[in-house]
Design goal:
The protein is mostly beta strands and about 140 residues long. The chain has 2 helices and 8 strands. A hairpin with a 2-residue loop joins strand 1 and strand 2.
Amino acid sequence: MEIPQVHPRSLLTVRILLFPQDIKLMNLKELNNKALLICIPASVSWESYLKELKACEDWSNELNFKVRCLPKVQCKSCYLVHKGVIKGWMTVTGYESKKFTCSTTGKEWDGNFIKRSGPFHRCNPVEYPSFRGFRYINPSELGL
């Protein structure tokens, strides 16, 4: 990933190497407004997922979301889609490749993870098609 060091208040354009064959140009303001969007599987009930969110709201635990590859752009917030609706967002606490055992289910996991913690901030529901992995979004463009 290629991100030149520039002052955060600068209006300069920053080059970001997202993929070796694709260089995208983004205004620094646009980059700062980006957030991650992940999709919780439809097989997981929202009520059971709320219990996991509740366990993280005091920052004592972290939720890990497995992805094929780690995001190239480090975002501060992560929105959640469940059954085609954006429900709200959480703070991203890190990105990590690791192996661990889930404290809730006891299942062993190995791979790349987006880590989240803190309170879950509900938003007005916005329809968004379900998908796998993660996406970059500009929340203001979606009315969030």
